[in-house]
Amino acid sequence: MTLQDIQTIAVIGAGTMGQGIAQLCAQSGFATLLYDINGTVLEKARVATQQSLAKLVEKGKMTAVEQEAVFSRITFTQDVLQLRAEVVIEAVVERLDVKHSILNEIADQNPPTTILASNTSSLPITRIAAKVQGPERVVGLHFFNPATIMKLVEVISGAATAPEVTQLMKDLAIKLGKTPVIAQDAPGFIVNRVARHFYVESLKLLEEGVASHESIDRLLQASGFKMGPFQLMDLIGVDTNYSVTSAMFEAFHQDPKFRPSRWQQQKVDAGHHGRKTGKGFYDYPEGS
Ligand code: NAI
């Protein structure tokens, strides 16, 4: 398959990442299918896409005609049978069993050439591929949040990934306006491995009572970071960030430097998942 053969991209999971990835694909001219099992999430994604495109028009970065065309390229669907595409980008919750199940469902109804890309932050691509039909077409395509804005995309090659699949996803990332970096398969790949300590150490400071989360955020912002760790966890999703740390802790044989925070777990248990639920380390009144 070449880049020209890619007509339709299916994005699985319409949450924080899936919505942005789907918008990006449509903005780059692809017919895009955005699927979620949860109708409420899908509706939120539709509204968020409309608002995001309207902002681009307001800022003069897109015409109203283009806005209409981009929006009409996206099919929002809860029907898994509609998911027929040359490339599938999976952005469901960070759980291996869920990823295996949905990717095999998609594999069943698509030809063996369909590329199955995962937006996982931390789960080894080799482990995802091992239980999916045709592991050679399973690859990591790791976008950063917000997917429409952040330039970097990690393209991850699992042990079974065919080199031409990795190359094609690198070309696709460029077509999407991104800067791809190829990484071999390792827990957390490159960025999340390095960035883990930004979160883990900040949570330790909070647990030890060294400073409040507001102070830690202010201090790190003052030292040059665009966002502090707690603001960033709220943007990413406290639940997603916790799952990623937990997955990396296990993958590194319980190396204490990756130990997940009890405080963070409590936030997850309470449903304080950050911006997407209106409350995380900070409060987000509706419409804010
Ligand atoms: P999210 O929790 O916002 O969205 C996940 C969505 O998957 C939910 O809407 C849920 O309804 C849906 N879902 C669950 N099971 C499903 C199934 N069987 N079929 C279809 N949809 C299903 O999660 P988020 O943050 O978008 O993360 C998705 C993936 O992207 C994860 O693997 C995460 O590690 C990764 N990621 C997240 C980033 C972030 O900043 N949040 C950044 C980069 C990667």
Give a quick rundown of the structure.
By secondary structure, the chain is an alpha/beta fold. The chain is built from eleven helices and eight strands.
Lay out the secondary structure:
Elements: E1 8-12, H1 16-27, E2 31-35, H2 39-58, H3 64-72, E3 74-77, E4 87-90, H4 96-108, E5 115-118, H5 125-130, E6 138-143, E7 152-157, H6 163-175, E8 179-184, H7 191-207, H8 213-222, H9 229-236, H10 238-251, H11 262-269
Helix pairs in contact: 1-2, 2-3
Bound molecules: 1,4-dihydronicotinamide adenine dinucleotide.
1,4-dihydronicotinamide adenine dinucleotide is lined by residues 12-18, 35-38, 41, 91-94, 98, 102, 119-121, 142-145, 236-237, 240, 244, 276.
Task: Describe the protein.
- It is a single chain.
- With 288 residues, the chain is an alpha/beta fold.
- The protein folds into two domains: 3-183, Rossmann fold (3-Layer(aba) Sandwich), CATH 3.40.50; 193-277, N-(1-d-carboxylethyl)-l-norvaline Dehydrogenase, domain 2 (Orthogonal Bundle), CATH 1.10.1040.50.
- It is built from eleven helices and eight strands.
- The protein has an eight-stranded mixed beta sheet.
- A hairpin with an 8-residue loop joins strand 6 and strand 7 (152-157).
- Helix 1 (16-27) packs across helix 2 (39-58) and helix 2 (39-58) runs antiparallel to helix 3.
- The longest helix has 20 residues, at 39-58.
- The termini are far apart.
- The mean pLDDT is 97.
- Residues 12-18, 35-38, 41, 91-94, 98, 102, 119-121, 142-145, 236-237, 240, 244, 276 line the site of 1,4-dihydronicotinamide adenine dinucleotide.
